[in-house]
Amino acid sequence: MELVVRDLAVARGGVRVLEGLSFSLSAGRALVLRGPNGIGKTTLLRTLAGLQRAEAGEMSLPPEAMAYAGHADGIKPTLSVAENLEFWAAVHGTVLTGAVLGAMDLAALADRPAQSLSAGQKRRLGLARLLVSGRPLWVLDEPTISLDAASVGLFVAAVRAHLAGGGAALMATHIDLGLAEAAVLDLAPFRATGGGFDGIADGGFGGGFDGGPAGAFG
Amino acid sequence: MSIWEYANPVKFMRLSGALLPWVAIPAAAALAVGLVWGFFLTPDDFRQGSTVKIIFVHVPAALMAVNAWFMMLVTSLIWLIRRHHVSALAARAAAPVGAVMTLIALITGAVWGQPMWGTWWAWDPRLTSFLILFLFYLGYIALWEAVPDPETAADLTSVLCLVGSVFAVLSRYAVNFWNQGLHQGASLSVAPGERMDMTYKLPLYLCMVGFALLFVALVLLRTRTEIRARRIKALLARERMA
Amino acid sequence: MRALLIRDLRLAMRAGGGFGLALSFFLLVAVLVPLGVGPEARVLALIAPGILWIGALLACLLSLDRIFALDFEDGSLDLLVTAPMPLEGVVSIKALAHWLVTGLPLTLLAPVLGVLLHLPGPGYGWLVVSLLVGTPALSVIGTFGAALTVGLRRGGLLMSLLVLPLYVPTLIFGAEVVKRGALGFDTTTPLLLLAGITLGAAALLPFASAAAVRINLR
């Protein structure tokens, strides 16, 4: 399993934010995306996960290989911790094991309704979903938000186990996870340069109207 | 050169700009001649009196009300399949025009119905269908207005237009089933006894041509406006990014 | 798929609002109409089929925005889209769950409300049959409306504007079945047409609903 991304361009709200992006990620490795707010980390991750269309370029793995975890955890407050995870396990055709609950330190909380969890506990529940998905490539958007130091430790251990098992992880995060297997990809060089705004504005208006906007719109 | 060339906004603007007077002036001429001829130079009907003359507005408006939706269906399909922005914007531009045509058909229908049927509104299948068509127009326009991202709005309204077309046809049959109605048959049909005289037919045809040209002119104009509005938006977005 | 149905039903039960609200609303309509129209049994008997169908339709409409809105807010919808099941199946299951918690209970309550409105004797059977055949179409069409407006602010009002015109054929044939049944006439034609709409909508609309969800998540 290897993810190869070539010449990818992604857009947010019809505006191209990243272009010419190429990288590869092989099994057992992790890649951390870096870049200032608004550069398009979330957009890139959502595009890879198949939630939105790429403007251009290709990637070697289908979205079905990826387990996506965004800002929201998709937790149902009225279901218990175990019920939440059992649902996602059933969706992905796996079963919920005690090891999964243990890995994210949720065993003691299994029967608690999710609405009674703290923000950090909810986040751990959200990350435990990755373990039951059984998918090889984790695509994570700010996975450590609202986690305390101990929980970050659990998360890093889970990622490490996933990598050791032949998986891979792609994540956007601002903190240093101390993950030796992780390479860093700075997105700044791939920032889109202003072309391809919106089909109507640019697709046909490349040269402007009859010699420039002022000519036609003045 | 293929017809899709005109899906390019620049080409479309150039062509539509040149075309607009050639559509608008004949539209005005056909309407002026057709309506004056129809209203003042035709004899009164022996049964319906001068009331019948509202036909010169009612029938062409009803015709364009349906044709406008049909045009939106075609342009929506073109957008979904070939993703030409001009096509989506033309659908958006046609909707309010179609809605107004529907409203004109409804109001003239009520004005016509008052002396004929003795009531301003009758739940006649045709009138009811047009009222339902008007509701479809309202929903379609509201969805365009509600979605902030233009591409998303174009996609969603196209899907709605497709589904809405099927349900509009279903509603038409359902309404027919629901009430058999007082409305006279299709005005131009050649049913025995209902045959329409040539003295009415000619100005009516002229009015229909006038309304059709008026519709084309309005849609061209509105599409041009939409394209310009989008262009301004894109320029502003670019300025913010720079 | 089955896991999703069970989850949606469980959520509807635990949140409480599911059954209760729609049924109470239906009851309210049946109480308010005689208060507005007057107590005369002859008049009420005449309008009962239409009022009961409109009441059921509006009660159905009331709960449509819950089909996707909660899943959209907590991120579950993103995860369902990336899950290994066809989105057309997901929206069909959601429509089925909606029908089970609104359409079906409404159908069962309707005869009781028929008594309040002096529905003529032969009409009761046809009322239940027509609602049983017709309310699935209301859920499927409503799911399409919910899919179009998921993620929009003030989406509820807009959704009513979009969905109600689409309900016209279902309402006409459904009420016609009861009207004819109450008068002892033959109901075959409208009942077959109603069944046709339900089957056609259930077979084709999920594709449109799934497309709308995908577009809205982009």
Key descriptive features of the protein:
heterotrimer; B: 242 residues; mainly alpha; 78% helix; globular; C: 218 residues; 10 helices
Summarize the model shown.
The complex is a heterotrimer of chains A (218), B (242) and C (218). Chain A has helices at residues 41-48, 81-91, 98-103, 119-133, 149-164, 199-203, 213-217, and strands spanning 2-12, 15-26, 30-34, 56-59, 66-69, 137-141, 168-172, 182-186.
**Mean residue pLDDT of chain C:** 92
Structural class of chain C: mainly alpha
What is the CA-based Rg of chain C, rounded?
18 Å
The portion of residues forming beta strands of chain B comes to under 5%
Number of helices of chain C: 10
Please mark out the parts of chain C with pLDDT under 50 across 5 or more consecutive residues, or reply none.
none
Helix percentage of chain C: over 70%
Please report the distance between the alpha carbons of the first and last residues of chain B: 37 Å
- Biggest sheet of chain C: strands, sense, closure? none
Distance between the termini of chain C: 23 Å
Instruction: Give the tally of β-strands of chain B.
Output: 0
The class by helix and strand makeup of chain B works out as mainly alpha
Would you list the SSEs of chain B in sequence order as H and E?
Answer: HHHHHH
Which SSEs are present, and which pair or pack?
The complex is a heterotrimer of chains A (218), B (242) and C (218).
Chain A: E1 2-12, E2 15-26, E3 30-34, H1 41-48, E4 56-59, E5 66-69, H2 81-91, H3 98-103, H4 119-133, E6 137-141, H5 149-164, E7 168-172, E8 182-186, H6 199-203, H7 213-217
Parallel strand pairs in A: 3-7, 3-8, 5-6, 6-7
Antiparallel strand pairs in A: 1-2, 1-4
Chain B: H1 9-40, H2 55-82, H3 85-117, H4 125-146, H5 150-178, H6 198-241
Helix pairs in contact in B: 1-6, 2-3, 2-5, 2-6, 3-4, 3-6, 4-5
Chain C: H1 2-15, H2 17-37, H3 41-62, H4 69-73, H5 76-82, H6 87-116, H7 123-149, H8 155-166, H9 168-182, H10 188-217
Helix pairs in contact in C: 1-6, 2-3, 2-6, 3-6, 3-7, 3-9, 6-7, 6-10, 7-8, 7-9, 7-10, 9-10
